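Hey everyone, long-time lurker, first post.

I ran two proteins through the pipeline my lab uses and got sequence/structure pairs for each. Pasting them in order. The first:
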Amino acid sequence: MTERFLLRRALETDNVALSQLSQQTILETYVEDFSIPYRKHDIESYFRSSKSPEWFASKIVDPLQATWVVEEKISDELVAFAIAGPCKLSHSDVCSGEDGDLQFLYVRRDRRSHGLGQQLMNTALLWLEERFKGRPIWLGVWSGNLKAQKFYMHYGFSQVGDYYFNVGEWKLHTFIMRREHHSP
């Protein structure tokens, strides 16, 4: 990493900070950057069910998943995170339990362009390739986030399907991307 940042596996005690970081990065990305008009109670409900400290605690201790964080050394603040594990995307080619999935990768807006996303991506891909040997790796990315799609294509992912992800009444058109197994 760099002298300024530390990439590490998440600890159980990171769950509250991860919840806060997740909520911040989702609001920055979808509400502020892309002006998605989520209704307040819809996004709050989503955060309670899918981005709460308890939700993150369950991800961190799950032996089938891995959660990484990037911590800014000066402030001890978490500024980025990634979660990987078994693929649960709804696609006819997914072999549940056998294929890997990059479930989340978010970097706080004011810490982008420091290579943190690349470091998290490289770390997650190494873990996924080791854990799901010879199998494809999957992910979902919002159809309107062209920068993220380009980032994932750089790593060999291509679009193979789509679905709608609901946040309350709002439906996000999401692309399913897959990276085929790469032989050494």
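...and the second, right after it:
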Amino acid sequence: MVFPATGPVPEIPNKDICSWIFDEPKYDVNKPIFVDATNTSRSISHVQARKIIRQLIAGLHKAGVKRGDCVLIHSFNDIYYPIFFLAITGAGAVFAGSNPGYTPLELRHHAKITNARFLISEPELLEPLLEAANETGIPRSHIRIFNTQPSQTIPAGFLSWTELLDHGEEDWVRFDSLATSTTTPAAYFTSSGTTGLPKAAITSHRNLIAQHELIYSPTVYKRTYEVINIYPLPMFHAAIAPRCHTSTLKLGETSYVMRRFDLETYLANIEKFKVTELYLVSAMAVAIAMSPLLKKYSLRSIRAGLAGAAPLSKETQAAIRVYLAPGAPFCQVMGMTEVSCILTMFPWPEDDVTGSVGRPIPGVELKLVDDAGADITAYDVAGEMCVRGPTVVSGYLNNPRANAESFDADGFYHTGDIMYCAGHSKLWYVVDRKKELIKVRGFQVAPPEIEAVLLTHPDIVDAAVIGVPAASALDGEAPRAYVVRRPGVSPAELTDRDVYDWVAGKLTKYKRLDGGVQFRDVIPKNASGKILKRILRDEAKKEVAGPKL
């Protein structure tokens, strides 16, 4: 049974992204769009963005970027980050972004799965990226330094990104074809999918345009106030990239860019700039709801808010809602990288107090399947949610196995999320997740990635990783490792601290074993050798629950 979205489906243009954004603007093209929240004298308008993008396209081509090449940005947020995104796609190339906190090991994997050919990096982040570049064969001539901050300097032997602006202007690669728009990649956003190591989701021009049109077209996006945004979420991430990199310039909404998230600075900026909309991951929402800073800064300018990336309690929603403008909705959304961001939501000004994630956006189809893969044909029955539609990516780059496991014969992507649709309201609810991903502060952590690192330790012969409740509710979950010592290795020779430090030295901070390390004689497995993580999770739940009388 297919659960279709209701309501009219907006038209989805078949254009390339740059033509779609710049050819027919419907707002004052000289108003500031991207504004540096730290230094508001730094801003970019529609007119300026168009010129800079054309200059960057010429510079990228001069540097050797060819159609289909992947250009990877390794940087914190900046007003020029979305401009670079559009220049890369306009040059006929493909964008990829990486986490500034990545280690050389993670960057090497990231560069490999995206098939990166050119790198744009902040100078302070260059060293680990160079290690990855050396191991993946990216020459230094294909690296530019993204020095946007006054204190930043250019390392010897490298060129600044501004050098790309010195080669005149060149128009972007244009097309107006359904087939071309559907098959031309715009970005490789990384995702762990339903299991395994991070993979590069092939996000097309049409995927991103559809994501916008199905959410922000005039027939759907009916705001009665001036929208002012603030972007503290990392711009490499699919949770914000479509909204920031494409929709902001298309809509002409003034948006303040924070280099990175800091709770007090964020709340102060909301008050200072009279921000009207919140785009949060659940960890941010929990942090805000629990913060005494709400007594210091006002959120009364907020007219609408949404939170996603992980389930959020309706109590947390209610705790935040009371600080917003009177009547302002604060709802949950459900989305993922593979659907180009948002999949279900509540249209403004509808609100929700039940903990639902809303209804599917127009133009997409949902179905539910049971553990055997059979369709569920009734409301109020939970199953794995599957989705098909114009925002769903075509697959993972160079990963036929993951594609076969994730997409069925009818073109539905199997999300790994257990959900149900309420018969009386047609609202959707997340029950659990089938996939084993660990959600840490909104980031996905794939257990196999940590397990692979653990098994490189000479004194570890087997390991399993699961997610357990984090010590702080703000973090959601934390990875925990179950480890088997090599025979003959004593507890003193391999301690839990040794294991923790081994992972901390090779993976970024949110992948550290903050859920603890436990040693076992054997890791529970089935007859085929698959780790029985259900047993480990059940044991962990009993620890949390404690003894009962």
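Reply from user beta_strand_b:
Welcome! Quick read of the second one: The mean pLDDT is 93. The domain at 2-418 is CATH 3.40.50.12780 (Rossmann fold).
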